[in-house]
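lol ok so funny story. i was supposed to be doing the assay writeup but got distracted and ended up predicting the structure for this chain instead. priorities right. anyway since i did it might as well share w the group, maybe its usefull for someone
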Amino acid sequence: MDRELFVFVDETTWPQSLALPAFPPAFVAGAQLFDVNIPALLLTIGYLTTPSHASGVSLSEFWAWIRYLHAVADTPDLRLTPAFFELDAHQKTILSDDFGMGAPIYWLMNRLQLGPIADGRYFIDRVAASIGATATKPKKRGPGKSPDFVAQDINGIWHIIECKGTQTGNGYREQQLGALGPPPTGAIAQKRTITFPPGYSGQRLACGLQIGVQGGAHGSSLRIIDPPAEEEFSVDEDDMIYADDAIIRAASAKSLRLAGFGASSAAMSAPSGATPRSRPTSGRYERLRQEIVGEKKARAEDELKNRRDRAAFTADKRRYLGRQMDFDLPAPITVGRSTFRSVRVRYGVSVDFLGELSKRPLVEDPIQEVDRDLDVAKERTTTDAGRKGARMHVGEAFVSEIDLRS
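and the output, tada:
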């Protein structure tokens, strides 16, 4: 289930001469074609749209399988079917946002050798709470919005990524990507909200996906730019220990939630209280905070104690515990000469990772300083595709799979 995607990397937006960041050697400037495996793309969407911190139940991990498998047209390049292209404005916005996140990150994973990926808003909240700073609460939309993602590569370099998606056309995509201003607008403004010290700072990317429709004059295309940065939320070198803590927690919490370990995910993402911004205080509020922390720890302990009750499976010769779901597709899908009528989705956290986590279900200190074995959550994030499915790994700690079935 591969589709071609037109990608344009605008090298002219990178700093000139010896200024940083340098144009990545793994990038190719200008226009190019990229093969997108649809099941792998949907695994990426399911992972990215699962929040680093959430309460209650999220349907984001299932959304891709229920709807988006039938959204992609049976064409050589990536296009939507007319039925999905003609959805009402609200549904089109959701689809555009999801594909607008999934396609750029899927393209960047291999080229930047990305490891853990965190929601930008969660990252700011968690680091600010850890260093005792008061960060301006990011807006959900507009110039004050935090960037979509903060990611660390396997060399320990940090990247800021803002993603946009539209079905309206190239003109609107340019509006979404924005302008330098003043004032800066669109993705350019949003990806300028986090800076890292020299030696840690990597790419600052704004990515725009324009999605085409079957039978339309124009196919889908992805544009990548790197406009100048401006400091809004700065992480000092002495505080990088808290950046590492935040990225490990973000990736681990996403993985735990997807695999059905909701209580452990909540203890991981917000160990000091109700939200990632929670931190020790005084008086009545401190007693209330400690009660919340105690309750969260007890629920996580109980969940991990009974982890063997979860679905067990093996992937790449490693053992995982989590969830397995079988769905009947609304309509059959034909791939080559094969017809598929159902899909099996599995999410799992490694037995070893869960075993280590069960020893300390809730840790308020920087987690990598307490248990180095949880550093596996910082390993490379990858996808592998086959003829009738795909698999996504976050190092050895987490795996997700989709398998099309007859």
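The two ends are 15 Å apart (CA to CA). The first strand starts at residue 2 and ends at 9.
back to the writeup now i swear
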